[in-house]
Structure prediction request, 61 residues.
Amino acid sequence: MKLPLLAIFLLFKLITSAQPKPVSIIFDTDMGPDYDDIGAIAILHAMADKGECKILATHGQ
Prediction:
């Protein structure tokens, strides 16, 4: 009985401890009069702070 519980625990630990590789992103925008670009770059930086992505470059016109 203890062996299946140990196997389940080890499998759960392996799945939850695996860190996916951060996604590399180049953010290109027009930075127009709308606020959607500001929100998008704020979310992008929050994701970068958490290690979910890596910002390679940003470009706005």
